[in-house]
Amino acid sequence: QKKKFATAPPFFPMSLLEEPDAKMPVVVRRNRPGTKASDLFSWPSQPLEEMESSLAVQQYIQQLIRTDPHDVVTIIDLPENQEEETWLYEHLRQFCIELGDLVMELEPACTRVTCPKMQATETWQYLCATHKKNKECSAISYMVHALDYAFAFLNGEKLFPSRINITPSAATRLPSIARRLYRLFAHAYFHHRDIFKAFEDKTSLCGRFHYMCKRFPQMLSPEMLIIPSDFAENL
Questions:
Q1: Which helix (H) or strand (E) holds 214?
Q2: Contact status, residue 10 vs residue 34, Cβ threshold 8 Å
Q3: I need a labelling partner for 109 at 20 to 30 A (CA). Which of 19, 56, 93, 184 fits?
Q4: Least confident range of 2-6, 160-164, 228-232
Q5: Contacts of range 108-112, beta carbons closer than 8 Å, 24 or more positions apart
Q6: Which long-range contacts (CB under 8 A, 24 or more apart) does 61-68 make?
């Protein structure tokens, strides 16, 4: 006889719980303590319109990335009946999360000694605007400051009191965050090409960012996309 659990059994990656009178198991989309890395998020995919959480758009984007991180068109294209402002806002939040992983990969090679200035090409240098006055920072410090600023900005309750409805006036501030984030890709591409390529082969993160800017040109003008588009296919 099949055992029925009142609560989730421990160490079970996709908890299919049976209530005493339930005919069908209930899918609990939660990673249990002790779940193996290979079993994380091993529950069925769910359409966006069936997600009822206030974090539904974020969860849907992350679901698409887990399914195939290289399918940048599916990940970025606006779903039917989805507000564009909220869609772009959540993508910028996701870029911040994954760019943190890129910075971690860069850190052994990108130091205050090897990269004392935040540069892309030899002619593009960026001053850090997170201080009282713009100042020159090492590349690694600039990237950490930029991510801290972006996270704080996107979590600010004054402009973004809700993650469900992003106002048009708040959405006009998103391109400034996109511009700051793109500089991290540019530095990695021009100064740490091997690390950039290895990370891109796993994530297609920059390819996704490029496609977002081409699909939604208000986020970043084409002349600011200084990384050659032929580094990834189908861009």
A1: helix 205-215
A2: yes
A3: 93
A4: 2-6
A5: 109/192, 109/195, 110/139, 110/140, 110/143, 110/187, 110/191, 110/192, 111/138, 111/140, 112/138, 112/140, 112/141
A6: 61/90, 61/91, 61/94, 62/94, 65/94, 66/41
Beta bridge partners of residue 222, listed in sequence order:
none
Tokens of 87: 């869609």
User: Cβ atoms within 10 A of the Cβ of 58, count?
Assistant: 19
Please say whether the beta carbons of 185 and 227 come within 8 A. yes
Full-model pTM: 0.81
CA distances from 175 to 2, 122, 124, 170, 212 (A): 54, 24, 19, 10, 11
pLDDT tens per residue, range 56-114: 899 999 999 999 999 999 999 999 999 999 999 999 999 999 999 999 999 999 999 99
Residue 6 burial (10 A CB sphere; 0-12, 13-18, 19+): exposed
If we measure between CA atoms, which residue out of 73, 74, 47, 68 comes closest to residue 59? 47
Q: What's the 3-state SS for 176-187? A: HHHHHHHHHHHH
Give the contacts of 152 (CB within 8 A, at least 6 positions apart): none
What is the tens place of the pLDDT at every residue in 107-135? 999 999 999 999 988 877 888 888 878 88
Nearest to 48 by CA among 95, 15, 84, 80: 80
Could you please report the per-residue DSSP string of 5-30?
Answer: -SSPPTT-SSEEE--TT-SSPEEE--
Q: Which residue has the tokens 């920072």?
A: 137
